[in-house]
Amino acid sequence: MAKNIIICGVGGQGTVLAAKVLSQAAIANGERVLSAETIGMAQRGGSVVSVSHVRIGGDVFSPLVPQGQADVLIAFEAAEAARNIAYLKQGGTVIVNKKVVQPVTASLSGKAFDENEMISYLQKVAGNVVAVDTDEACRELGSSKVVNMVLLGAASRAGLIDGQELKAAIKQLVKPDFYELNVRAVDWNK
Fold this sequence. Notes:
six-stranded mixed sheet; 190 residues; 6 strands; alpha/beta
């Protein structure tokens, strides 16, 4: 049976590395993996949107997750979770960074996105939502560049991804100088 995962965020947050780590972990476990990146360009002051599709299993024939079929939506930003919620299947799980990155257009119009409203919306629509305070994690870990691994760790604790396989994949994909930091990020739990 296939496992479909959507990873979404804004440009530069580490969604591509997170998808590579998930893919490598599944491949090392003998699974078939198809993945794709759908990265949108910034237009008129907007942000670069990044969506990674990861499909794991023998009965997968396309790299793109159809809408309504994602088992897991890992969102690096709450507004991106709301924007991509149509991918999530009924009964699926959302792992979401509580932080909202305000788009330039929202800032200019004075209509800022509210993280509590976003999380409430996700809970109403998806039901199974794990909200992670990545700002706190980054402060404790001493780096703002590990949001991706903190969120993968939350997915692991939710029973959606094997933590040991993640760590083995990190060892293969991340420079040795950053391995321990990334493993601590996977293990961070609050």
